[in-house]
Amino acid sequence: MKTTPSHDYQRVYVWEQPVRWFHWINAAAIVVLGVSGFLIAHPPAFVTSTEASAGYWFGAMRFAHFATGYVFAVNLAFRIYWSLVGNRFASWRNFFPLTRAQIRQVWEVIQVDILQSSNKPVHALGHNAVAYFTYCGTLFLSLFQIVSGFGLYAPTSDFWFPQLFTWVVPLFGSEQNLRIFHYAVTWAFALFTFVHVYLVVYHDYVEGHGGLSSIIGGWKFMEKHQAQAEQTTGLSAIVTRTTAPAEAAATAAAKPAPAKSP
Predict the structure, then answer these.
(1) Among 6, 14, 19, 206, which is least packed, fewest CB within 10 Å?
(2) 172: in domain
(3) Does some domain include residue 37?
């Protein structure tokens, strides 16, 4: 028998403040790194009447690129740490295909987002499986950009941290070879950014869970019978019977009190 949605929504705190800070710092860093990296690869020619020694815009651009690289690296390291200590929606287990249910959810999302052969929303309090696995891919791309970027920076820096990556250039044969890969991954991030923004807006419209605002305030909304279902755990389609104390209290408060016997 088909049940009729109650439209009785429950507000659930999904994205903790550290996760939200990571998201926006990461977004700003990617924009600065992408723009400055493009200008470093394709420096424009400025016609000016000042002495060449007075114009240091390219040096300033390189400084902005490398300084933001440190921010990008530290921010990513913090997110990896938070995947170990954060709530279930931030857990590292979400980002890897550990169960058949996760793989099944990937197919369900593909039917909605790409094939558009289904208009049935995939309900997940956290990210859906495709989003989690995509972010896992961007993690490895980010690590490559950090390693290759500091490898290119090492010959011009006396600081100890870039010197940890002096082995990268010999591995790729030359600086130019490494620079080509570093530059190519930059365009992969540009493509990811456009697709990411589109899908966030699209899913916010289709699912109506407040996904777009949740990365600002941390809260998402879902019908109570879905939010309390065992499969809606924040671990992408991983069924679990464990319940955090605060969540258990919220669930208990939502249930009617049992009638007292005479």
Answers:
(1) 6
(2) no
(3) yes
H-helix or E-strand spanning residue 189: helix 175-207
User: What is the tally of structural domains in the chain?
Assistant: 1
Give the type of residue at 1. Answer: M
Work out the angle between the directed axes of helices 100-113 and 175-207 (0-180°, nearest 10).
Answer: 80
CA distance 147 to 152: 9
Q: Within a 13 Å sphere around the CA of 120, how many CA atoms are in the beta-carbon half?
A: 6
pLDDT band at 53 (very low <50, low <70, confident <90, very high): low
130-145 pLDDT, tens digit per residue, is 888 999 999 999 999 9
| Structural domain range at position 69 | 9-47+58-133+195-247
Q: Which two tokens stand for residue 157?
A: 């820096």
* CA angle centred on 127, ends 123 and 129, rounded to 5°: 85
Task: Give me 71's structure tokens.
Answer: 């921010």
Query: Token pair of 48, please?
Result: 């000016």
What is the phi/psi pair of residue 118, to 5°? -140, 140
pLDDT, tens digit (0-9, with 9 covering 90-100), for 17-46: 999 999 999 999 999 999 999 999 998 877
241 in any annotated domain: yes
Cβ neighbours of 250 (radius 10 Å): 17
DSSP characters for 40-56?
HHSPPPPP-SS-GGG--
Which segments of 34-177 are extended strands (E)?
A: none
- C-alpha to C-alpha distances, 62 to 3, 13, 66, 139, nearest whole angstrom: 59, 40, 6, 24
The tens digit of pLDDT for each residue in 207-230 reads 778 888 999 999 988 777 666 664
Residue 180 lies in a domain: no
